[in-house]
């Protein structure tokens, strides 16, 4: 019986991940804590209403607020009735477009992106560690992107998202630091690139339908073990392993 907490579940990857996990029987996926920033959008509310209590909404308006994040952790602890949390998925993220070259990105824009994509992920992870420590899997998943790979930077010069790319490179290092420092306790920290998916963030021009990309993300999450600790992995999608262009979805590790 696996319990999960997932951020950024009001739409896109997070919403689809909740939907797919709910398809598993209760003896495999027992509880999903769907974390949102504000009021529930209708699609998530419908899932909650039909979940027979398996999905619980947790609201954190500001991921950088230690008070709010700790309050959310306390809510989850109370709801689990003494059991630990098995899996945390840091999925929430923002990707504002930036016209022009890197010099055009303002300090406020950079800070805003880092607040959500890096500081927010750190605050959630650090405050949820006691819950994960008491769980069976002790797994934390950070949803990253191949655009956060420094080695792959030349591939993505066409994408006008400077602050996003930089923040995801930082998230990858955040994942690495947690992986190194908590390996002895049996934790697994893994960064996943979910591919270019047709969400509000990814746009209609993306490679993959939401369900297709998220299915691979879901499978990686449910199969992850300590052998994956500290890794940065790609999804696998049949027919995309050797695709032309910037993106291939081959299930391999992505270079830093």
TrEMBL record:
GO terms for molecular function: oxidoreductase activity. Pfam families: adh_short. Gene3D superfamilies: NAD(P)-binding Rossmann-like Domain. Transmembrane segments: none annotated. GO terms for cellular component: cytoplasm. InterPro entries: Fungal_SecMetab_SDRs, NAD(P)-bd_dom_sf, SDR_fam. Belongs to the short-chain dehydrogenases/reductases (SDR) family. This is Short chain oxidoreductase. It comes from Friedmanniomyces endolithicus.
């Amino acid at each position: 019986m696996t319990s999960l907490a997932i951020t950024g579940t009001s739409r896109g990857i997070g919403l689809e991940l909740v939907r797919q996990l709910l398809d598993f029987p209760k003896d495999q996926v027992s509880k999903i804590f769907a974390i949102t920033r504000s009021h529930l959008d209708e699609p998530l509310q419908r899932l909650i209403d039909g979940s027979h209590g398996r999905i619980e909404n947790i609201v954190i308006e500001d991921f950088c607020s230690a008070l709010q994040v700790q309050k959310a952790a306390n809510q989850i602890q109370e709801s689990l009735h003494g059991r630990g949390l098995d899996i945390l998925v840091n999925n929430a993220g923002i990707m504002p477009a930036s016209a022009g070259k890197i010099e055009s990105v303002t300090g406020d824009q950079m800070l805003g992106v880092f607040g959500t994509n890096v500081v927010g992920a750190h605050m959630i992870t650090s405050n949820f560690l006691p819950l994960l420590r008491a769980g069976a899997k002790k797994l934390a998943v950070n949803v990253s992107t191949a655009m956060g790979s420094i080695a792959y930077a030349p591939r993505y010069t066409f994408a006008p998202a400077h602050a996003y790319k930089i923040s995801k490179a930082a998230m990858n290092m955040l994942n690495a630091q947690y992986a190194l420092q908590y390996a002895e306790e049996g934790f697994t920290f893994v960064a996943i690139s979910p591919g270019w998916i047709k969400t509000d963030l990814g746009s209609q021009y993306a490679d993959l339908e939401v369900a297709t990309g998220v299915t691979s993300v879901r499978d990686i999450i449910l199969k992850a073990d300590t052998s994956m600790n500290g890794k940065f992995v790609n999804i696998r999608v049949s027919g995309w392993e050797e695709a032309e262009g910037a993106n291939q979805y081959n299930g391999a590790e992505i270079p830093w």
